[in-house]
Amino acid sequence: MNLPAYQYTQLIKAKATELGFDFCGVAKADFLEDEAPRLETWLKNGMHGQMNYMANHFDKRLDPRLLVDDAKSVITVLLNYYPEQKLPDEKDDLKLSKYAYGTDYHFVIKDKLKDLLAYIHDEIGDVGGRAFVDSAPVMDKAWAKRAGLGWVGKHTNLINREMGSFFFIGELILDLELEPDGPIADYCGTCTRCIDACPTDAIVGPYVVDGSKCISYFTIELKDAIPEDVRGKFDNWMFGCDICQDVCPWNRFARPHQTPAFDPHPELSAMTNTDWVDITEEVFREIFRRSAVKRTKLEGLKRNIAFNQPK
């Protein structure tokens, strides 16, 4: 098939919608000039903590042409994960980040992106490309912003005007010329709710998050003991944290997702604080069989649960 770039773009976006993606945008595969100095400063200031992988492949993070030969376009997709019902029901119960309620998003999005790439091969022809879901040094939010899918808020999450920020992000980097979308404006205005609400002061300034101070970092990425100076500040979050997104006014537009794989395991919604404290390997394996929570292992989850208990 030999069509103009805008028609290829229309075909791909229509297929992305058919596959269940909520939004799809395109950016030209160029060097991320604006992000380069910000990333360098962030790393120099040690804001990645023990996430040493963030310091690797600096050049590849900023230039998709180093990941896919002769790359011309970056297709970014968003998949909503906002749940029908938040867990738990009680304010003082232990909490999981909403993104971890159901099946690990890496599996779900990667399968959909593979289907989209297969469609491109079938309909358009011999197109070189790769699918990415946190699987390589790709700056997801920067590409989503370039593709016009939203802006990066003061909490550094992507915000979409129509549905807020509870999205997973994935990319196809292709050697196919497509019609790029333009970026949109920043609509955070003078709002500082996310900055004011962060209990560990991880948002050190508008649009700058010190990852080494974030509750998500402490409960997922940190392998050592959690520092005592943040005890009592976790607001019962035992895996991840949604505070900065929960207080964002744009999330009043969030709507429940349409992806059954993201629904919580039936036993998850029935767990009480006592159940969490007494959780066994068997229960952990059953509830989190295909969940992102497996990253922290039972030992890590129990550490986080214990850290949230009063001394």
From TrEMBL:
Keywords: 4Fe-4S, Cobalamin, Cobalt, Cytoplasm, Iron, Iron-sulfur, Metal-binding, Oxidoreductase, Queuosine biosynthesis, tRNA processing. It catalyses: epoxyqueuosine(34) in tRNA + AH2 = queuosine(34) in tRNA + A + H2O. One of its GO terms (biological process) is tRNA queuosine(34) biosynthetic process. SUPFAM superfamilies: alpha-helical ferredoxin (SSF46548). It comes from the Bacteria. Its main location: cytoplasm. Coiled coil: none annotated. [4Fe-4S] cluster 2 binds at residues 198, 214, 241, 244. Transmembrane segments: none annotated. InterPro entries: 4Fe4S_Fe-S-bd, 4Fe4S_Fe_S_CS, QueG, QueG_DUF1730. Its cofactor is cob(II)alamin; [4Fe-4S] cluster. GO terms for cellular component: cytoplasm. It is found in: Cytoplasm. TRNA binds at residue 223. The keyword Iron-sulfur applies. [4Fe-4S] cluster 1 binds at residues 188, 191, 194, 248. It holds the Pfam family Fer4_16. Catalyzes the conversion of epoxyqueuosine (oQ) to queuosine (Q), which is a hypermodified base found in the wobble positions of tRNA(Asp), tRNA(Asn), tRNA(His) and tRNA(Tyr). Monomer. This is Epoxyqueuosine reductase. It comes from Spirosoma foliorum.
